[in-house]
Amino acid sequence: MKNIRSNWRWWVCGLLLLATMVNYMDRLTLNLLAKHINSDLGLTPEGYAALEWGFALAFALGAIFFGFLVDRFSVFWVYPLAVIGWSAAGILSGFAQSFEQLFVCRVLLGLAESANWPCALRTTQRVLSREERSMGNSILQSGTAVGSILLPVVLQVLFREGESGAWRAPFVIVGAAGVFWVVLWWGTLRKADLEAPAVHETSLEPQLPSISTNLYIRRFAALVILVITTNMTWHCLRAWGPLFLQQRHDFTQDSVNKFFMGYYAFSDVGAILAGALTLWISKQFLPVHASRLLVYLGFALVTSLAAWIPFLNGTNLIIVFLLVGFGSLGVFPNYYSFTQDLTQRHQGKLTGTLSALCWVALAGWQWSIGEYVKQTTSYTMPFIVSGLAPLVGFVGIVVLWGPPGDAKPHMVRPPSPPHSEGAFHPASDFAVQK
User: Fold this and answer.
1) How far apart are CA 401 and CA 296, in angstroms?
2) What is the pTM of this model?
3) N or C terminus of the chain: which is more exposed, having fewer CB within 10 Å?
4) Does domain 2-198+212-403 have CATH number 1.10.3470.10?
């Protein structure tokens, strides 16, 4: 029975990986085909930046909405309905005939896709114990890389360079993939499986300690800094990396597709390794919080190599670009785990609020990159700032988080297996002292 329960938990994480994979394939189709879409619809760098700006603001609004929604209603229903929504928006993008129509589709995509992280983190909190969550979060986050690797393969099959409107079919085919995930989710899970935080019998879950109002505010501020700085590198290279290689280094569409398959493969390794290292270090050497900090710092240092990308050419450019991919996705799993240590009852609201603040900041960031590129035809400053940003987030956590409270856990009765009638007592949520 123990093995059944263990296998079930990781199956759920696999479903989260697939959802994130579909999420990113829908999102990145625009970025990888940007040169051809811009040409077909007459978009300037400023217009392309406006698409990213609209997506980001919609994502911010949607994150708050879905954060509250997933705390109010079961993730069993909210998650698949969101996937249906973003799949429909992706399909409609393939039929856009103007900037305005594509902008509306991009806004709708951002609104629906924002549900992925509140829903996914709510789910890992439900099925994994505290020290397992970095690994579970690594698995779900690696879906971004898996989707990003598969998308260039899809484009190799569906896209014909030089053929008018060839960029449209990938939007439709990729968007339709979300339907298969919905069938898997509703076909293999039941609502009762996701009702309360899980405690594994071999890894007992400590209750989150009560903290003062001041410390709670400090930790929330640390997470705001961390979520913005963690995302800056990844989304700068996601949106502008293909154009940078095509405009500054004369990459063809085929070369961009092949390069980003390797880039996202390195990213996937980074995401999985970050979780595995954190789990191993926390079991063998350090408390959970210290393990997360150490691993985050290591991956942030690798990510900082992005500052050198504008000054490199040839093989050196390729190697450093790939290393940045490895590091920039590896910082995400432990950010997610930090958020899960602040609250259990309101994980959706917290994740949604942080995502909203992050994407408002990213909207301004993407807009400023577009203006900078338009005026200078250079990518130097955006890459430098993006590369160093995660180190700023690390400093924020160290300075503001305070004592981690990695106390020895007290006994909590483990849950019954999935689909059983047994009940268990979830760890309590934080309590703010007056």
Assistant:
1) 14
2) 0.68
3) C
4) no
